[in-house]
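#struct-queue
[09:14] JT: dropping the first one here, sequence first, then the structure tokens:
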Amino acid sequence: MIWLLIRKRGSEARLLLAGGFTLCIASWFDFLGIVFGSWYYSGRALPTIPSFFPWDFSLIPVTIMLWLQFKPTLHPFIKAVIYSFLTTFIGEPLFEWIGLYTMVKWNVFYSFPIWIVIYLIAYRISKAKSFDPL
């Protein structure tokens, strides 16, 4: 709902494409992390879906799409590092502290370069030439 209110009109397709990519990658990484025992989620939002779906299908793509719109002239690597820092060192520990998930064989420092790469690929997707500029 937040994204619908503050998105840049006319850029919905490019932002949704970048957000969709982020959704797929985040879900895949979450699935792999759970399968390999690196972390696990406690509780379920709905009994028929994995417990990481609400975060991977809402919070992560929306924050990426909003971050892509925020200061679009700032160098993408700087934005990627800031986004990664906020996600890795504030978001992940916060969600663990709240009790939504538990890291078993994972350290937050492993996430930092991953979030940088995810953001930079989403940025690249959002700049596809077949769309109007942001």
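[09:21] JT: and here's the second one, same format:
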Amino acid sequence: MTKTIQRVNYHTHCDRCRHARGSAEEYVEEAVRAGVSKLGFSDHMPFYDDRFGLRMPYQELDEYLGEITALREAYRDSLTITRGFEGEYVREDRAYYEKLLSREDCDYLLLGQHFYEKENGELINVYQLPDTRDYEIYAANIVEAMRTGYFRYAAHPDLIFLNDLPWDAHCERACDIIVEGAAKYGFALEYNANGFRRGKKQFAEGERYQYPLDRFWEKVKEAGLSVYVGSDCHDPEQVYDGIVEMACGKLEELGIAVRTDWV
């Protein structure tokens, strides 16, 4: 039997990212209906040069934060709303993260490493890898981001395993780098419910979800790390749906406590 836990979600998108459905207020209304006590907006971080795509244009940044701030005030008697972004860590943009975090209307940043940076500065899309040789570089990027203090926790840290590549020593070491880094820096990780929504796929080692990856989370359990469940919702109906409840149940089966307090 799954334990009853406080309903919170700090990983929420809205239609500004251009690949989600529903306005920010629709997500708030669903959160109230679902009995969520804390809702964190973390739409994809726009960069000043509009790199990466599939996110709001940089020119909408102020409008987005203003909208969430207005909702925070309007619904303050119903739930707590926090304001932030999910974004990639890029070394040259440290001043940008500091600028965002210095604003009164930005509460936090989540680390969502959809792209990772090589030593020469080249940015690589994790969805387009031909082999596992760079997995350790991806993992090292995440640990480097942990050290900066800019990010509250790492969203889907096992995202890279969505690639259909045979498990090898690079995969194993990438897991260890992330887990060891999180333990060293006291950094929380996110068990991402959206991976379950994608359904199971056929991989070299058999059928499984793209993520969360059991092998990775078994290492997280052994290390006793702090773990959040993130809905990563892209539709108001997903704010706290049966998939989020399933993710909480999966962690309970693994023996990992779900953290719900605000970091």
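[09:30] RK: nice, looked through the second one.
[09:31] RK: The chain has one domain: 8-254.
[09:31] JT: good to know. The radius of gyration is 18 Å.
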